[in-house]
Amino acid sequence: MADPAPSDRTSKAYKEWRVSGLAGGSMAEIHIVVSTVALAYWCWKCKTAADYHRSPARFAARSWRTLLQECGVFLVPMFLAVTDRHLLTVIAALLGMGVYYRWQVPDPPRRADKWAPDPRADEYAKSHVPERTTPKAYLSIYRAEMMLLTCFCILAVDFD
After folding, report:
1. Taking the CB of residue 148, how many other CB atoms lie within 10 A of it?
2. Closest alpha carbon to 74 in 29, 32, 39
């Protein structure tokens, strides 16, 4: 039989009782929760591509609306994924939004001669510096999301 909960909810004994004897999550559950980070990034990239193709002139403008959308795509799904009840709903919503926004991005035009030289190759050669490696944006975003996920998990242990 499990030990009864201490009556004083602010005591150290109550906090220790609440977190003792937990088995943790399975590896599959951990992978599914972490996959929401990759899905959120994919969904955001599809959304920004769709926004760019919809109106390139307005795309560069940053606003409060963009900040709220970023929080809605990156923070809210991750927070809901940590709560076990909403995990599959979050994954389904991110997949649905990503597919919807990807569907709005037009496909690139097809060239009749696929062996013809790429007209953008000269521009790339001018801008590319071989000695310098460029940071990959998705790695920075992944690291930031993992840090936030860790903070959410630590806070989940501290609070009911």
Report:
1. 15
2. 39
What's the CA gap between 94 and 103, in Å, rounded?
Answer: 14
Residue 1 has pLDDT above 60, yes or no: no
Query: In degrees, to the nearest 5, what angle opens at C-alpha 81 toward C-alphas 97 and 141?
Result: 70
Residues near 74 by beta carbon (within 8 Å), at least 6 away in sequence: 40, 41, 44, 141, 145, 148
Q: How is residue 1 written in tokens?
A: 């039989």
d(CA 112, CA 104): 24
CA atoms within 13 A of residue 55's CA, in its CB half-sphere: 5
User: By the 8 A CB rule, do 29 and 83 touch?
Assistant: no
- In the prediction, which pLDDT does 123 show? 64
Asked if 45 and 104 count as a contact pair (C-beta separation under 8 A), the reply is no
Q: Tell me the residue ranges of DSSP E strands in the chain.
A: none
**Average pLDDT rounded to a whole number, residues 117-122:** 68
DSSP type of residue 3:
P
